[in-house]
Amino acid sequence: MKAEQKDFKKVMDTVAKIEAEVSRHMIGQNEVIRQVIICMLAGGNILLEGLPGLGKTRLVNTLGGVTGLNFSRIQFTPDLMPADVTGTNIVTRNEDGEGMFHFQPGPIFSNIVLADEINRATPKTQSALLQAMQEGTVTVADTTHILPRPFFVMATQNPIEMEGTYPLPEAQMDRFLFKLNVPFPGFDELKGIIQLTTTGSEEKIEAVTNADEITNIQNIAREIPIAEPVLDYALRIVMATHPEQEGSPHITKKYVHYGSSPRGAQAVVSTARIRALLSGRYNVSFEDIQSVAFPSLRHRIFLNFDAVSDEVTPDALIEEILKEVKTYP
Hints:
The chain has helices spanning 2-25, 30-41, 56-67, 82-86, 123-126, 130-135, 170-173, 187-197, 211-222, 228-239, 250-255, 262-278, 286-297, 305-309, 314-324; strands at residues 46-49, 71-75, 87-93, 99-105, 112-116, 137-140, 143-146, 152-157, 178-181, 256-258, 302-303. The protein has 2 domains: 2-214, P-loop containing nucleotide triphosphate hydrolases (Rossmann fold, 3-Layer(aba) Sandwich); 224-324, Helicase, Ruva Protein, domain 3 (Orthogonal Bundle). It has 15 helices and 11 strands. Helix content is 47%, strand content 16%.
């Protein structure tokens, strides 16, 4: 524990540098930037959802430069094949002229992989990411290849354009630690974006950290204690998303078809630890749990037809659950 306390200020300084450098190249979206950093430091994958032109791709590009990590971008299209993502075996010849198979790594072999417009690819291609997102490995033919560490998939999708898209299956949605909704900027933020991007005077992105330092922060964050009442509170919130549970709120029984998986509880607890660390505390609070519940659970709750008919959103449901579930039973 002493080692973690000694590095505590260094972690805070590093995160502050990351946020400051990203903010130099991103106008506004401060809350989204903070949540993306929380998710990265928790070692998870991120799904960014928002209208075109809101800076989703720019944010991921900027993070790649600021963190000093290897970065690759995959533009998902209907004709994209799994081998275009993972790589494939190609035939080469050795010095004796004999043919042999050689693995050619795909763009997924990077620290940060931007899966741009992920819902434009077919389910077959989307599934090529499943093993990588869960285990950090890729299996081609009969060989398993280990991906670089740290490894993050940061995917984007447009919530309103349905033509030519393939909704992500539940199993893949569950492998995103956070789903973040990217809002439209306010007037002042929009003015700053125009001034930054239309003058031709953008500054070069500077790397303020590296892979080893990010991995070290991830290890420190795992040691942040969470009191049993706080842990129980997080678990009760997740249990309250299941309509079949006896003590579930009325709104859950009325509007939810399926509740969150255990990965939702893992997401809440792991990211709450990071949030506590970035808030200058060495313990997880009830407020940390409440804050990360929205991005951790909104894509893991599947609503029924009544919810769609009554225009009930996952965020509205989570808000009601937080009101119903008390910090102490």
